[in-house]
Amino acid sequence: MAFCACGCGEATAGGLFKSGHDQKMRIDIEERAGGLVALSRLIDSAEQFAHGRMDVNEFTGQLRRQFSR
Fold it and tell me: Cβ distance 17 to 6 under 8 Å?
């Protein structure tokens, strides 16, 4: 038996999510990041860091600034 990837603990019909739970998770992540633009900036920063275009101090600084709001 597969369980919903959103963390609700409910069983799925074989997919990753129960119907509608993927959208609920998407909305929650967006809100926690501070909105869609902020989420996009976080992803951009993570990609830059992962590809060696940003050092760890700059990356963690950006994370702290984003989540201190």
Answer: yes
Print pLDDT tens along the chain (69 aa). 899 999 999 999 999 999 999 999 999 999 999 999 999 999 999 999 999 999 999 999 999 999 887
Q: Say how many C-beta atoms besides its own lie within 10 A of residue 4's C-beta.
A: 19
Calculate the alpha carbon distances from 58 to 17, 41, 45 in Å: 35, 13, 9
Indicate the domain borders of the chain.
1-33, 34-69
Burial class (CB in 10 A: 0-12, 13-18, 19+), 41: middle
